[in-house]
Amino acid sequence: MPRAGLTPDVIVSEAALLVDEVGRERLTLSELAKRFGVAQPSLYKHVDGLDHVHGLLAVEVQRAVGDGLRRASTGQAGSEALDSLATAYRDSALAHPGCYAYVLRAPTPDHDDHAAAAGQILSALTGMLAGYGITGASAIDAARFVRSALHRFVSLELGGGFGMPRSVDRSYRRLVVAVDQALADLWAPRPWVRPAPGRPGPRARRSRSRRWPGRRREGPATGPDHGPCRRSRTGSGRSAWPRPGHASCRCS
């Protein structure tokens, strides 16, 4: 018996159930029509086609994931916020293995609803990163790092890539700990420490190493206690620099 009251939201909800059952690749309008007990042309009164359904699914899935990440990490900071966010991310993917693929669908410039839904995920990530003191442009790099790490693990798990007799939960926990350490060590801002007297700072040491750009030394190490200094040969064939001890020796 045909089902009455079809709306885009109803169609998307049923499409999400179908995708979780059979996968995104097997989602078709004809299969959706069968589940509703209507003819396929009846669906075109509510959606423009299969691509439209995929787009609506992406909005719905990303909005749900973003909301879940935000609720999981609210009221926490640092490693606790990361742990809660990572747990919510994985739980959502395992609960909806087919729909998880829509998390990766990037919004088009003319789709404001999709852009807003994707922004919720980014907002949850940047909010968590703020607890590490990571903001601005660095937060974009760090958000990509966190998302890439979590996504790759979850994708392998959904694809059956973890067949060894070892707890996947434990492996995921160690991944989250490693991400926490990376955020704290690589991206979190560090206080500036004045170098000790007589010791050049990092900038001075870097500039010293670039004193002779384009030149490469050959042969053994040079200096007062070593053999003759040499430089790379030029077109004229000259290669010998003044020996150490001479005023013009640049290796001293």
User: Main β-sheet, in a few words?
Assistant: none
Question: C-alpha Rg, in Å?
Answer: 29 Å
| Classification by helices and strands | mainly alpha
The percent range for strand residues is: under 5%
The helix-strand sequence is HHHHHHHHH
Query: What are the low-pLDDT stretches, counting only 5+ consecutive residues below 50?
Result: 204-252
Q: Work out the number of β strands.
A: 0
Specify the number of helices. 9
- Helical content (DSSP H or I, runs of 4+): 40-55%
Distance between the termini: 94 Å
Give the CA-based shape. Answer: elongated
**What value does the average pLDDT take?**
80
Structural key phrases:
252 residues; mainly alpha; 9 helices; elongated; disordered C terminus
Short account of what is shown:
Helix 1 crosses helix 4 and helix 4 runs antiparallel to helix 5. The chain is built from nine helices and no strands. The chain has helices spanning 8-22, 29-36, 40-43, 50-73, 79-95, 112-130, 137-158, 168-187, 202-209.
Task: Give an account of the 3D structure.
The longest helix is centred in the N-terminal third of the chain and has 24 residues, at 50-73. With 252 residues, this protein is mainly alpha-helical. The protein is elongated, with a radius of gyration of 29 Å. The termini are far apart. α4 (50-73) packs antiparallel against α5 and α7 (137-158) packs antiparallel against α8. Helix content is 54%, strand content 0%. It has helices spanning 8-22, 29-36, 40-43, 50-73, 79-95, 112-130, 137-158, 168-187, 202-209.
